[in-house]
């Protein structure tokens, strides 16, 4: 019996199925090929640092509101880098980074469920209370969550706006 027949039985000239051992070999081979691609990518990054691909995973909110200006500046500065965006939920984008399908993720939620990832501050995402000048909260310089909870929901509008520090995360 040949080695090949142990992993993929034949019926005449045709392979009929892949055995469990064959499936394991295929899985390992895919991992090896993925590592070879990663090695080529790293070598290329060091040979041509201004050329290559960058895979960013992010949420819809970040992609739509926070990143367009940053991406425009990045593309102008690095025109030979192919930029790829993967949009998903915080869990999906963390999974993309964890599995190596994205170089990094940008999210506002804490991705504490992933022990294999490191979270770093990137920029501040401010949340503001917007009220009319006559509203009782307008006289305060800051509002606690308890003070906000004491006001009826019909009186308070939350307005999210972005404020970046001087350095962007890409």
From TrEMBL:
Pfam family, one: LysR_substrate
InterPro entries assigned: LysR_subst-bd
Superkingdom: Bacteria
Coiled coil: none
One GO term (biological process): regulation of DNA-templated transcription
Stretches assigned to the LysR substrate-binding domain: 51-150
GO MF term set: transcription cis-regulatory region binding
Keyword NADP (UniProt): no
Annotated keywords: Transcription, Transcription regulation
Protein family per UniProt: Belongs to the LysR transcriptional regulatory family.
The protein's name in its UniProt record: CysB family transcriptional regulator
Native organism: Salmonella enterica subsp. arizonae
Lineage: Bacteria, Pseudomonadati, Pseudomonadota, Gammaproteobacteria, Enterobacterales
Underlying gene: cysB_1
């Amino acid at each position: 019996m040949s080695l090949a027949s142990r992993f993929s039985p034949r019926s005449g000239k045709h392979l009929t199925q892949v055995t469990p051992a064959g499936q394991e070999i295929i899985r390992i081979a895919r991992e090896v090929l993925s590592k070879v691609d990663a090695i080529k990518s790293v070598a290329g990054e060091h040979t041509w640092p201004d050329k290559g691909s960058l895979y960013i995973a992010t949420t819809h909110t970040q992609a739509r509101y926070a990143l367009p200006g940053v991406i425009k500046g990045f593309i102008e500065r690095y025109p030979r880098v192919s930029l790829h965006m993967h949009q998903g939920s915080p869990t999906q984008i963390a999974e993309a980074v964890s599995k190596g399908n994205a170089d990094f993720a940008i999210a506002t939620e804490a991705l504490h469920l992933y022990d294999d990832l490191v979270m770093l501050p990137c920029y501040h995402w401010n949340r503001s209370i917007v009220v009319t000048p006559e509203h009782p909260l307008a006289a305060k310089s800051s509002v606690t969550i308890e003070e906000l909870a004491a006001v009826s929901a019909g009186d308070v509008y939350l307005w999210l706006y972005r404020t970046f520090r001087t350095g962007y995360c890409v």
